[in-house]
Structure formats: structure tokens, C-alpha cells
Specification:
Layout: E1 4-6, E2 11-13, H1 17-28, E3 34-36, E4 48-51, H2 53-61, H3 65-69, E5 78-82, E6 88-91, E7 108-111, H4 112-116, E8 124-129, E9 134-139, E10 143-148, E11 156-168, E12 179-184, E13 187-193, E14 198-206, H5 209-215, H6 220-230, H7 236-243, E15 251-257, H8 260-265, E16 269-270, E17 273-274, H9 290-311, H10 318-352, H11 360-382
Parallel strand pairs: 1-10, 2-3, 5-12
Antiparallel strand pairs: 4-7, 5-6, 8-9, 9-10, 11-14, 11-15, 12-13, 13-14, 16-17
Helix pairs in contact: 1-9, 2-9, 9-10, 10-11
């Protein structure tokens, strides 16, 4: 079949959270878009994800928050336990350091698939055209969509990896609906009940070459066994969650991030081409903001394009859209670079705080005194960010 070359007003390459949320945002303001994804299925790496108030504010703007809040309860609080000493600290997840209630619906964990299935996507394949400053996107029916390629520096390895899974308890897990974290030498684990029968768990650790090589093969039995060996000294609740894992939910991945100064100073748009989500600001999961920031991106980009679309009588010129995309990038640079920095530093302090080597006593002081007592209570405001509302498109 001869390829048919076609042009689309808006092409979104990538069917992850940012891509699908952006498509939904544009749809709500009256702009059609085409979403392309390499995989035949939705990208659902990771069994679940936590969404803070800033994500729920974005989901309300997208008009889908109510579909999720009816199925997932907000957490009542949380605990952080030092595995070595057994000391547990309580922390609130519903108020900021001033004692004020957070906006929106607070912190909840949801199944990742539940979020991604809010909108279906077209099956597609993409490839990079090395002979030009462009990308040719090939659809399965033989048509091609041309877009420009935006060059960005490669992401970097944080020196840590993460394992995630979903523990299944048919008879009920009997846990309180709160998040529990456990910190140990070079490792930090957490559990978060999603329902009465499901517990989302995760474990991040400093890179161990021989173990990483085994985990990278993707065998769920190996991932489970290596994880169980690593949490031998942990409370039984953690070991139970790992043992009861749905094998299909188990995943392993290196924790990658983009240097914040690359987000601040490097080009994030080229004409009418820009990036969002992990393509713009990959970050470590220590503040649970990867998916949240992606939802913010979608609303901010949709707001800029939607206001232009409505203001210009439902038409968009290339010159005008370039200006709006530049404004979107300007708005997101400092916000996302701040999240990358805060996430990385949080992980560094929390995971190093139980180290018994070298400056372990200093890291423990920074964790227990500086982070828990001063920084953590103020993160509520940082994570309660309001990305704005989408304009209403007239019928």
C-alpha cells in the first residue's frame, strides 16, 4: 500500500498520563487531537500511583475527578518507621504546617490503569527520521504524520532503583487506611492500601549491580524473591504485601531524572512543538509528583491553547500557537524544576538518614530534625499547587 501523508492540527506522541490528559484537556476546550503510541496497549508500568491535591485540582479541571473519588478513599494519615531503631513518627496528610486543610480531595492512591483508561487511544507506531530534524509517525493503516523533533539531553540515573507491586488479600488485609513508610540503610519501602483487599507497595534502594542485572530481566518471580531477601528485617506487614503480590503487577525500574538546570535553561519547545510529562521533567518518586505534574502540564497547555482557540473564534494560526506554547513552557519551567530538585533531595535525605557509614549521623540529623520537622510540614503548600481552570468552549 502506498503511504498517504496527512497533516493533523495537534499530534500527541505518547499515550501515557501526560499525553492522554492533554488530549482530554484539548477536547474539553473544543480542539481535536490525535494521540499516537508505540505500544499496542496502554502504558501501565507500575500497579498504582499516589495523587496529591495538585493532581485532584487538575483532574477536576479535566472533568474526571468525580469518576475516581467515588472509588478511592483519601488517606487518614501516615507513619514513618526507622527500621533499625523501631521509632515511628506520625504525620498528617490532610493539613499543611499552619494546620489548614488542604484543598481538593487530599492524597489518594489509585490504580494506574483506572487513570489511563479515562480515554482510549489510537494504535500507532513511531520512528525517528535520522536524515532530518523531524519525526515521521507511521500509523498502522499506512498513513504518515510529520512532526518536528525536539532535541533534549538524556536523562540521568539517580543511583537508585525501585520495585513496585500490588499485594492481594482476598480475605482482607486488616490495615488502617493510611500510608506507612519504612526507612533503612540504603533502602526505603512503603505500603498504601488501595481497597480492603489490595495494598500498593514500593521499595527504592541504592543500586546494587548484580541484583539490578537480575531484576532488569523482568521475571516477576525473580523480582519478588530478590525483594523479599532485601526486606528480611522489615515489619511483617511489608513482607506480607510482597509475598501476596499479583505477579503481573510487579515491576522494576532504575530511577531516572532530568537535571533541573536542563529544564530551566534548555529548549523545551521549537515552534509549535513542545514536551510534557516525563518527556519534560522525569523525576524520582520521593514526593509522588511524577503523575501529578503530568496532569498539571495537561491543564496548563490546554488552558493556553483553549484560550487562544476561543479568543480567535475557533481558529488557530501557527504564529499564535507558537506564542502560547512559549507561555506554557515559561509557566512550567520553574515549577517542574523545583519538583525535580525537591524530589531528589527528599530521597537523598530520607534514604541516607539510616546509613551507619561515614556521615550517617549527619544525614540522620538532617532527616529527623530538618526534613521531618521543618521541610516536610511545608511541602503541603508545594503539593497543593493550583494549575488553573480550563476555559469553557461554546457549543
Amino acid at each position: 500500500m502506498e503511504n498517504v501523508v496527512m497533516k493533523e492540527e495537534v499530534v500527541i506522541v505518547g499515550g501515557g498520563i501526560a499525553g492522554l490528559a492533554t488530549a482530554l484537556a484539548l477536547k474539553r476546550v473544543g480542539v481535536k487531537s490525535l494521540v499516537l503510541e508505540r505500544s499496542n496497549e496502554l502504558r501501565v508500568t507500575g500497579a498504582a500511583l499516589t495523587l496529591f491535591s495538585n493532581a485532584w485540582i487538575a483532574l477536576e479541571s479535566l472533568g474526571v475527578a468525580h469518576k475516581l473519588t467515588s472509588a478511592y478513599k483519601p488517606y487518614e494519615g501516615g507513619q514513618v518507621t526507622d527500621v533499625a531503631s523501631g521509632v515511628t513518627k506520625e504525620n498528617t496528610l490532610t493539613k499543611n504546617y499552619k494546620g489548614e486543610e488542604w484543598q481538593a480531595t487530599g492524597l489518594r492512591a489509585i490504580h494506574r490503569r483506572a487513570l489511563l483508561e479515562l480515554r482510549s487511544i489510537e494504535k500507532a507506531k513511531t520512528r525517528r527520521d535520522n536524515d532530518s530534524f523531524g519525526v515521521i509517525v507511521h500509523l498502522e493503516d499506512g498513513t504518515s504524520v510529520h512532526t518536528k523533533w525536539l532535541g533534549l539531553k538524556d536523562v540521568v540515573h539517580s543511583g537508585r532503583c525501585a520495585v513496585r507491586g500490588l499485594g492481594l488479600f482476598p480475605e482482607g488485609h486488616g490495615l488502617q487506611h493510611q500510608i506507612q513508610q519504612f526507612v533503612d540503610t540504603g533502602r526505603r519501602s512503603g505500603i498504601a492500601p488501595i481497597s480492603n483487599n489490595e495494598v500498593y507497595w514500593s521499595s527504592t534502594y541504592q543500586t546494587i549491580v548484580h541484583k539490578d542485572e537480575e531484576m532488569a530481566k523482568g521475571d516477576p518471580k525473580v523480582i519478588q524473591q530478590v525483594t523479599l531477601e532485601s526486606v528480611v528485617g522489615y515489619p511483617q506487614v511489608v513482607k506480607d504485601a510482597v509475598k501476596q503480590s499479583d505477579m503481573q503487577s510487579l515491576s522494576w525500574a532504575p530511577l531516572l531524572f532530568r537535571y533541573p538546570w536542563d529544564v530551566i535553561f534548555r529548549r523545551l519547545s521549537y515552534g509549535t512543538i513542545t514536551v510534557a510529562g516525563d518527556a519534560m521533567h522525569p523525576m524520582t518518586p520521593d514526593l509522588g509528583q511524577g503523575g501529578c505534574a503530568s496532569l498539571e502540564d495537561a491543564v496548563v497547555l490546554g488552558r493556553h491553547i483553549g484560550n487562544l482557540y476561543i479568543r480567535n473564534g475557533r481558529t488557530i494560526s501557527q504564529e499564535d500557537i507558537e506564542v502560547e506554547i512559549e507561555m506554557y513552557v515559561k509557566e512550567r519551567r520553574w515549577r517542574t524544576s523545583g519538583l525535580i530538585t525537591a524530589s531528589y533531595l527528599s530521597g537523598w535525605v530520607l534514604q541516607s538518614g539510616s546509613s551507619s557509614r561515614g556521615v550517617g549521623w549527619l544525614m540522620k540529623f538532617l532527616r529527623d530534625t530538618l526534613f521531618y520537622k521543618i521541610v516536610a510540614p511545608r511541602l503541603g503548600g508545594f503539593l497543593n499547587y493550583d494549575c488553573g481552570k480550563l476555559p469553557t468552549a461554546s457549543s
